[in-house]
Design a protein that fits this description.
392 residues; mainly alpha; 2 domains; globular
Amino acid sequence: MSEATDMASPWYRPMRARRADESHRASTPLELLFDLCFVVAVAQAAAELHHAVAEGHLGAGLLGYVTVFFAIWWAWMNFSWFATAYDTDDVPYRLTTLVQIAGGLVLAAGVTPAFEAEHFAIITYGYVIMRLAMVAQWLRAARGDAAHRPIALAYAVGITVVQIGWLLRLLLPDSLFLPSWVVLVLAELAVPALAERRGEPVWHAEHIAERYGLFTLIVLGESVLSATVALEAAFTRTDHPAGLITLGIAGLVILFAMWWIYFEQPAHERLTSLKMSMRWGYGHILVFASAAAVGAGLAVAVDHDLHVAHVGALPAALATTVPVAVFVLVVWLLHLDHERMRRASAAFPVAAVLILATSFTPVPVHLTAVLMAVLTGLLVASRQPAPASVRS
């Protein structure tokens, strides 16, 4: 069978790197299905954070959220960067990706035990399933793409070693939980940094920017849910709905402003080098985690207004204002082109500080919504035309 016939076959295609300048590159239906399974995992993590904060277990809730969200983000990110280079869309690729999706659902099923009983076996098994499926993808890339074989083999070996570490970690005593987690996280982060040095990596800037944008929409969905819950409670569970109605509206304003700020400028223009791309890609864990945490914070605010939360006004306020402030700062530092928003750039850190200050007021969520709306207005008013090279 000729190579041309191989390439045309839907059953099997040699896995070779796709062109970085490929036109009209967009997310595939399989990538969208992959994202869908992570909607469940993100929703589970945000819901458990909400319950932990509302019950006054802030420390345990944050620890559980950070550990769980890292597993969600890292598995999603690694698949997305692999797919931007090696999406052959043949039968083996689809089946291997479906195994990864199954692992993601196992991970999602383990979120609640991880939060409530510090039982991390299920979430570890789901994570390892996804990562070992990724090893199979990299081995296939090593076989089909001689030019990038050193990179692919480095990924395969590195990921395998770290997954053995995650499984062995289940045998350790609870006292070593946090130190062992930190060591293995650092090992996971080191694998791409070491592997990419073994050759010239391939990525498609517009495709990656779209993938990250889609995941941002997923995590912002948690705020949509919380605003909806506030409005539902206003109309069905209280004789004084005005406060909850305005809380729901304020939550929507915050959501709309976060969306606007993130998507105001095309992200792919920032991905001009490997160093910048890795900084942008790694830094997005704070974008994603803070955006999902805003939804959890708004849910805590609803519980506080309904007098069912077991925390005071200040912790309930901080549950929303802290993640919003983090989102504003990280998007400003990583995502926005300061040259094209010179008149509004300084407003971002100021807005973050003011948002935190609203925590000490009677209506923190409402004032945060006002500040986010003003910040969005300043960003729009400061728009600068794209450079001629970008427009062309």
